[in-house]
Amino acid sequence: MDAEKPSILVSSIKPTWASLLLLFTIMLVLSYQTFSTMAGLPTWVGSIWPAAGSDTRSDHHPSTCSGFFGGVPKRKVVMSIEAFGGVGDGATSNTEAFRRAILHMQRFGESGGAQLNVPKGRWLTGSFNLTSNFTLFLEEGAVILGSQDPKQWPIIEPLPSYGRGRERLGGRHISLIHGDGLTNVVITGNNGTIDGQGKMWWELWWNRTLEHTRGHLLELMNSQNILISNLTFLNSPFWTIHPVYCSNVVIKDMTILAPLNAPNTDGIDPDSSTNVCIEDCYIESGDDLVAVKSGWDHYGIKMARPSSNIIVRRVHGTTPTCSGVGIGSEMSGGISNVTIEDLHVWDSAAGVRIKTDKGRGGYIANISISNILMERVKAPIMFSRGANDHPDKGWDPKAVPQVKGIFISNVFSLNSTKAPELRGIEGASFERICFKNVTVLGLAPSAAWHCEFVSGFANGVFPAACPQLQDMDAFDWCLQR
């Protein structure tokens, strides 16, 4: 399926007082810029953008994830965790209560499904597995707390597309909430909270005493028809939401928070998955807000499970060390047909970043990125290499990625410190890289684009693009986008 064409009609976004105030601020800043090349700025800069704190719920927008997941099913059996001995006092372990509840509800999977309600309270638990045709529903005021006992996060096999734990050799800790081989699963509620209490895990990482790769807050594997919505996720030990080898996944109306120095607390990482829609989410973390992945070096190449047909829209957030949206760096199974639109990032290291390296192999193709607003983002657009992290000695330095068909348009970055940096890889193909209406303000007069081993075409960009982006062979293709 071809990637959805991103809309350039930014004016269709409903203005709010916050967005109007932001517009006024931008216009005020522009009015004080006196350098002569300002006449070349694209005219779309004056469009109305959604601002931080504005109402971005999907029912206010014509574009939704409805095509990826149908209506939430009404389950035949609805029960409370209290019926299985659960105690919401924040101190009593509910690990066995959750496991008993899920085991009981499995029996209804073929006869209307089941829903487990978590009432108001603080429900301490270790890891538990979900089942098919199932809804986990957190009522208002409900908080699921991750256990501080590492034994309550058992060790499981590494992902075959990674070959080992991402951080340590061998297996990895299971996620707090986990599922494998499931279908028709809903995780939702009245803005209840799942708190991984990750500080213990971060300290193990900081102190270099971590024995196995940290667990995610939520990981679903080999599953389909998944909805995750209307919850707050806090303090994940590692990547927060990780659908891997999945299809038809919707993640919407989520708030995901971790301390800004918490290591590797990515917000949402679709990995070797297809038909994934992420929209209307607010994320603060110590790593990428959203990162699209597909396996690591020779293990990812061998498994060849790409990520494709991914939509990321109306995501707002900040990450001081990483990117608003990253593609890679683990992308060895291939990534294609990705649409990123209406992104708002502030006080961050990077806005949009494509991350590859020697040994990765794979491909990144047909990526559309549009309508991006950045404030105080150091490097708004980056293609980076050289992470030099590999699972073992089996990686092939001749396996280089192929990157083709990247279209980036309608980007406005205010108070940046670096012009776009596009660092390809010698001997690899980075071509048909297209830019249209890209404005980066706040740079020193000497700041300039930096491009290596890339080719494409740029139109309506400020400051002026590098010579590698005046490739007339790419002009027609870029013009047709």
What does this structure look like?
One of its GO terms (biological process) is carbohydrate metabolic process. It is found in: Secreted, Cell wall. Belongs to the glycosyl hydrolase 28 family. It holds the Pfam family Glyco_hydro_28. This is Pectate lyase superfamily protein domain-containing protein. The chain is mainly beta and 481 residues long. It has a single domain (77-387, 400-480), classed as Single-stranded right-handed beta-helix, Pectin lyase-like (Pectate Lyase C-like, 3 Solenoid). It contains 5 helices and 29 strands. It has a 23-stranded parallel β-sheet that branches. The protein is globular and about 65 Å long. The two termini are 17 Å apart.
Largest sheet: 23 strands, parallel
**Number of separate domains:** 1
Rg from C-alpha positions? 22 Å
**N-to-C span:** 17 Å
Count all strands and give the number.
Answer: 29
Large-scale geometry: globular
* Spans where pLDDT lies below 50 across 5 or more residues: 1-21, 23-60
Topology:
Elements: H1 17-31, E1 77-80, E2 89-93, H2 95-105, E3 114-118, E4 121-125, E5 128-129, E6 134-138, E7 142-146, E8 155-156, E9 172-173, E10 177-180, E11 183-189, E12 193-195, H3 199-206, E13 218-221, E14 224-229, E15 232-234, E16 241-244, E17 247-252, E18 255-257, E19 274-284, E20 290-292, H4 297-303, E21 307-318, E22 323-327, E23 335-355, E24 363-384, E25 402-414, E26 421-423, E27 429-440, E28 450-452, E29 456-462, H5 472-480
Parallel strand pairs: 1-3, 2-4, 3-6, 4-7, 5-10, 6-11, 7-12, 10-13, 11-14, 12-15, 13-16, 14-17, 15-18, 17-19, 18-19, 19-21, 20-22, 21-23, 22-23, 23-24, 24-25, 24-26, 25-27, 26-28, 27-29
Antiparallel strand pairs: 8-9
